[in-house]
Amino acid sequence: MFWQAVGAARDLSRAQDIAGVLIRYGFGDLVRRLGMADALGKAGKVLHWQVPDELARLEPPARARRALEDLGPTFVKLGQILATRVDLFTPEWIDELSKLQDAAPAVPFEAVRAQLTEDLGEAPEAAFAALNTQPLAAASLAQVYRATLHDGREVVLKVRRPGIRPTVEADLRLLTRLAEIIDADMPELHRYHPQAVVREFAVSLRRELDFAAEGRSAERIRAHFADHEDIVIPAIHWQWSGERLNVQDYIAGIPGRNLGAVDATGLDRKQLARCGADAVLKMTLEDGFFHADPHPGNVFYLPGNRIAFIDFGMVGRLSEARRYEVATLMHGLVSGDSETVAAILLDWREGEDLGADTDPARLHNEIDAFVDQYKGVPLKRLSLSGMLADLVAILRDNRLTLPADLALLIKAFISLEGMGRQLDPDFDMAGEAAPYLERTMIAHQSPAALARRGWRAARGAADLIAGLPQDLSALLRAAKRGKLRVEVEVLPLKHFGDRIDRAVSRLTVGIVTAALIIGTSIVMTVAGEGLLAGLSTYALLGFLGAVVGGVWLLLSIRRSNKE
């Protein structure tokens, strides 16, 4: 199964590495079910199935996190993406995956120099007045260096690790094939949407490898905050920036995790909490383009109670319609309108149909009970992250999955409230969000917005009517030529048909094998010429054919049981 999926020999060595790490951390059963063990065995690779005692004692989420760390940058990034899918994984998995640190041993500067010179168009010593060759930070995809421009400004250089893209592309190919196998042969994992998650991850990772795209995201958010003096987004120096290099202003501030330094410098924690909340709420509910990973490592506190955001490799986008849906949902939660909440959640489900495990009546009852417990509770006593976490738990229990943009939004809200309460234990996230939710709902129903949507709808209807005669003409021509076809594909029946086909094939081989055995027995009783070692040649050939058929049938049944 996996042997055919790997396809190219260039990926086989990486597949062996992946299988070895999974086995070492106690996921050998997954390796077997994916067919990786058989594939690598055919290639002459030896896998050691012993799990160290220390790792065997770890809980599955911890073992998974350790395995992802050992698998390298692609899988660390995958774990970080999965940590945003609060609708798919339980809190213990989310907490463990959130511990994945995007850090790696630093590559010596001499290994980076040639690529840096190529991207700058000149030697680094010529491009900058000063350059510290000791990295400020070393992550899985990049290293960061501090430098000084010839005009005296301080900048940082984010340099992509040399040779990282081929490794990432090989990992993405293997992940894509593994997701296809899981979707086809592991029905119990369908609710995790493996192919959709891998597609989303591949797009996100390739975008993160393009530092020019990160620079454009930073510039876009910087423009949105041009009139906000309390929010700082570092400027990008495009004359040196590109796909593998990002040069931006250096931020001299207090890291978000160093709350002791915040108190020592006399900054106002409450003001910082409100400032950060306003920034993220503006990005999400007003601008529709937001920093999707606002954790303390990507935040700096500056004099004057200002906040700086860095690292825009992971961003989220929300359309105007989606922002209105979010505002309506939040308003329904606070006002106790369970019907509205349930309707929006059902609209957000991925896929056209509800899963077999989803009962709409049960979902409505659970949401009604959930909303009822918050009726009459003042905003300042509500925990927005707690409400969202409980709501997402209802989705998980009912086998409903959020679209990726909303999963990012909810994770950003939960991270934001957590950071706000670290700064200010009395931080009122729901109260801070209320004005933005109200403005979003009003803006959606404003005359300008209604006119804009009406114009789009009218233009679409006009295009449809204008193209109707041509479409009908093409349909009639196809019908006249006998080319009009209606195709209906029922996937469960197709899967059942495939199983019937395999069963019939095995039954046929079994009948032929049995016939050969009976025929051979009859021929062996006939005396005459053409004997070999006292046996009829035809009898011997029939016996060998029966043996081959029987062995094939047994191997086929064994392989089917494994799958």
From TrEMBL:
Q: Does the keyword Transmembrane apply?
A: yes
Q: Which residues cross the membrane?
A: 507-527, 533-555
Q: Where is the ABC1 atypical kinase-like domain?
A: 99-343
**Family (UniProt):** Belongs to the protein kinase superfamily. ADCK protein kinase family.
What InterPro entries does the record tag this protein with? ABC1_dom, Kinase-like_dom_sf, UbiB_kinase
CDD domains to which the protein is assigned, alphabetical: ABC1_ADCK3-like
Report whether Calcium shows up as a keyword of the record. no
Q: Give the domain of life.
A: Bacteria
Name of this protein: Ubiquinone biosynthesis protein UbiB
List UniProt keywords, sorted A-Z. Answer: Membrane, Transmembrane, Transmembrane helix, Ubiquinone
The UniProt entry, under Pfam families, shows:
ABC1 (PF03109)
